[in-house]
Amino acid sequence: MMWATNSSWSSVFMxxxxxxxxxxxxxxLDRDGRVLATSLAEAFATSEDTIRRDLxxxxxxxxxxxxxxxxxxxxxxxxxxxxxxxxxxxxxxALGQALAGLITPDSLLFMDSGSTNLAAVKAFPDDLRxxxxxxxxxxxxxxxxxxxxxxWLIGGRVDAxxxxxxxxRTLADIEAxxxxxxxxxxxxxxxVAGVAAFDPEDAxxxxxxxxxxxRVAAAILNxxxxxxxxxxxxxxxxxDYVILEADASDSVARAFxxxxxxxxxxxxxxxx
Length: 272
Known about the structure:
Layout lengths: L1 H31 L2 E2 H7 L4 H13 L4 E3 L2 E3 L8 H5 L3 H12 L7 E4 L3 H8 L7 E5 L2 H7 L5 E5 L3 E3 L4 E3 L1 H8 L5 E3 L4 E3 L3 E4 L2 H13 L2 E5 L11 E4 L6 E4 L5 H9 L3 E4 L7
Parallel strand pairs: 4-5, 4-9, 5-6, 9-12, 12-14, 14-15
Antiparallel strand pairs: 1-3, 2-3, 7-8, 10-11, 11-13
């Protein structure tokens, strides 16, 4: 009986230790933007197997996203398109302005779904001659005001959470295109873990854009940097351009540049 009691206390003590260790792991993740299993094992004087169990537990509770060798924070971009449209509008406008500067007149542009890409449409000059394809109804509606733009709206089942058409019909139509430039909507981006999305069909469309576009650009808010999401799209170096905010980390910018991606910065967003 005494043995059972001691065993129970031992189990409780180990659970407390694990909970404290996991809380410290989350604090490191919040502070550093990523954690590595080898470094954590050394810091906590425990085995890598123990750390991997901790990371699996945290990931299972939705508190981090496991990647090879460690973990990243979960991207905040998992909310619906309607919610995202009203967030960080001034910062998205600055990123959209930078995206608009990449566009070559009289070319075929594909605009992926997303509120930052919608901000780019608003920055298009009124006399810009362009052919634009998109599967995002909000982007298509904004493009109607641009008289020199020829618009191709890709149809299919519109997913309200993503804010765009998804599914086999949509994918087949996008696969038939060869855009000179694609503006990719990005849920999560990390120099090592790459580009990721929260929806498998959305990720499939983005992979097709990476394959078939001559150039691909993505603009990203600071809070989506060094984060992950469940469905991998491609490596960071598959992007030709990454547009960062004016105050984004220099070390992150260098990490993208080291992989051959051209890094541009948006102008500082104007204060409200």
